[in-house]
Amino acid sequence: MVSVTPFTMASTMADPPCGPPLASVNARSLQAAPGDRESRIRALVEDHYDFVWRTLRNLGLSDATAEDGAQQVMCVLARRADSVAPGAERRFLFSTAMKVAATLRRTAQRRRESSAEEIDSLVASTPPSDELLDERRAHALLQRVLDALPIDLRVVFVLYEIEELTTAEISAIVGIPAGTAASRLRRAREAFKDIARRMQAASRGRRRDP
């Protein structure tokens, strides 16, 4: 049985399917920008694209949809870079990613990658090693647990446990008091463990059924 805890999650998370797509940033925005502005935008895309992609992915989007969403976030950055103060870029990108994720969740007909049956079907033609299969199952379980968390708890949990930010950094990025961030993290950890236990128990029950 695959076991997932908050402390083993980072190794199960997928990486972005490609590097920062600089070409996806609105070309006119870059061409119209002074040299320093263009350099800043390019540096921000290179430095934060993976963070934005993981944020979207951990908010429930599929790999492909998260990639599309990350490109949308970076296009917004290119248009609004002049209004983003130095040092506030990550908070701006996170806030924009939250809005983009909400829109994509409402409109995209995405395939659920958290289904164990789907993973079995995906790898049936070329059986992976036991280690790889366990990793895929752990990732699927993680996504189901994250999907079951309320969004306010999920955001803090992902930023702390997966992105490895401090509660002070989470407070600044999300725009909530540090005490609220710590409280949500505590509740999220408790909810994560409870949901994971229930899902694993349900899975064991299904396997015992004839």
Task: Walk me through what this model shows.
With 210 residues, this protein is mainly α. The chain has one domain. The protein is built from 9 helices and no strands. It is globular and about 65 Å long.
Summarize the structure.
It contains 9 helices and no strands.
Strand content: under 5%
**Count of separate structural domains:** 1
Morphology = globular
Number of strands: 0
SSE topology sketch:
Blueprint: H1 27-32, H2 35-58, H3 63-80, H4 89-107, H5 116-123, H6 130-148, H7 151-162, H8 167-174, H9 178-208
Name its key features.
single chain; 210 residues; mainly alpha; 9 helices; 69% helix; globular
